[in-house]
Amino acid sequence: MIKEIIILFAIKNEADSLLNHSEIKFKKEKGFHSGVHNGYLIKVYIIGIGKSNVVKWLNAFKIIENECLLIKAGTCAVLNDDIELLQAIVPSYLGYNDSKIDIDFDKIPDAMVKKIKKYIHKDGLVTVDTPLTDRAEADKLLKKNYHFADMETYFVPEKLTGYPFLAVAVGSDRGDKNSTSEFYANLPKVSECLKNTLIEIIKA
Fold first, then answer.
1. CATH code, 4-203
2. Using one digit for the tens of pLDDT, what is the confidence trace for 90-142?
3. Domain extent listing, the chain
4. CA angle 167, 171, 59 (to 5 degrees)
5. Which of 54-58, 61-65, 188-192 has the lowest mean pLDDT?
6. 89 vs 80, 180, 190, CA distance in Å?
7. How would residue 155 be classed by pLDDT, with cut points 50, 70 and 90?
């Protein structure tokens, strides 16, 4: 039975709407924010951008409550032009280089799975080492059935094995030459969408 939900964001801007503009009243603790909602203890951490920051953070992190759900939440590049930006997505698997991790939805409470069913994509999210700013590179990943890309998510379940895990992302850009400007322009709306989706999961 899940008692605690740990939500990991790369940057504060992604977490802003949840922390400061949601029905959950968070308080600042040493290294994280905490709140209680729908019977769950919610902990929010900012873990940094990219592999080196995330791996360093994960190596120092210890889970106290074994009955917990891990959620990596944040922005992603949407590589499939048929999928609109600013929509929540939950990938079915994660990739990094030639490695792959399937999301085990059987470990997630049934009520939560029912809530996120509309967001689940059968295709994957790939974690890359540098921001995608080249459409040709994005297309190579798309041909491998990765429709989404970020710079952190894969490393969380790779390191924190055995725990129920979800990746919740919102498309901010297309991973092309306009990705940087699109990312910053869309970040406030991404944060709002992440908040709404996470609240749905928590209230399930």
1. 3.40.50.1580
2. 999 999 999 999 999 999 999 999 999 999 999 999 999 999 999 999 999 99
3. 4-203
4. 40
5. 61-65
6. 13, 20, 12
7. very high
Distance CA 166, CA 178 (A): 28
Burial 132-144 (b: 16+ CB within 10 A, else e): beebebbeebbee
pTM: 0.96
